[in-house]
Amino acid sequence: MVSAGENFTMAIKTDGTLWGWGNNTFWSLGLGGMNSQRNVPTQVGTDNDWKAVSAGALHAVAIKTNGELWGWGYNEYGQLGGGSAYWYTPGHIDTEGDDWASVSAGGHRTLAIKTDGTLWAWGHNNNGQLGDGTTTDRNSPVQVGTATDWKSVSATGLHTMAIKTDGTLYAWGFNDCGQLGLGDNANKNVPTQVGTATDWKSVHTGFFYTLAIKTDGTLYAWGQNNTGQLGLGDDANKNVPTQVGTATDWKSVYAGGYHTLAIKTDGTLYAWGQNNYGQLGDGTTTGRNSPVQVGTATDWKSVSIGLYHTVAIKMNGEQWAWGGNYSGQLGDDSGETQYTPVMIGETRTVSDDEDVDDGGGTNIVLIGAIAATVILVIGAAAYFLFVRKP
Question: What CATH number was assigned to the domain covering residues 2-386?
């Protein structure tokens, strides 16, 4: 599996090893040592029992095969569970029980579901995005309500969406663009049901918008739409779920910063929204407000989206990437923007404390790269302090 953070990428191989590449200013890759970026996939430690990983804004969390939950990167808001402001390498997030089933890393917060169906949250909570009824930050997991039937959760940006085992959909957190789908723009600090439908299959949150698929294969979108990220053919925000076209063969959908990708049941890939870095993969920098097919391949398996980049896996296990590459987040060792999918090459192991220059990658012991790192720190801090919109 693969998970794109804001400007970095994490992935797990079929052998259970964990890999990371891209921006590492806040030790988001979990490699320890110097916080230099990596332009190629670099192994994180030597463990081979990783099961799932989720990359957030500046931190990442992962589950091992034994149910343990681990995290690394930026921890200013307690999104890793307390302790120091940075976790340089993966650390065990201590809880009452190591029985985690799934996890989603968002903007400075973490949401996770246990095997008993309970939902837990911790980290930044200024807009009620943890769903515990408060706006208080938490530096350890707190249970969201008492329900034991949570199926999946998505926590990108400042709002959270989740589906229960009965197919009902719930929303909470920031709602200035109607991204909760409740018909208004009021924030919610507890899970609130979206409509009355009981046939929701999957949901994915972008920065200020949401995409979801029903069991009949129809696709719905709502929230911010200034770059056409809803795929509705216009740029008007929506505060209730609105169907995208008439197709009934959508298999999975992925929302990012301001662009969206989705896979159909025939394995074809579609994209829409912002495209200033070629993140749609259609060979242009033209934004799209309705789905356009990416190439002609029919063997796409899964996708993950960062702020301005996209990574995807094909059915044969090949990993492809495209879009912004200024932090090495594509992993192709070029540092250049890619406007169409390029395959990620062979990976290599780099020790935790090795200073590397991956074919043009940053080495922070160099004066020029120090300046670049400072710029990244200031830019990232400004973005997440003020929640920048395009």
Answer: 2.130.10.30
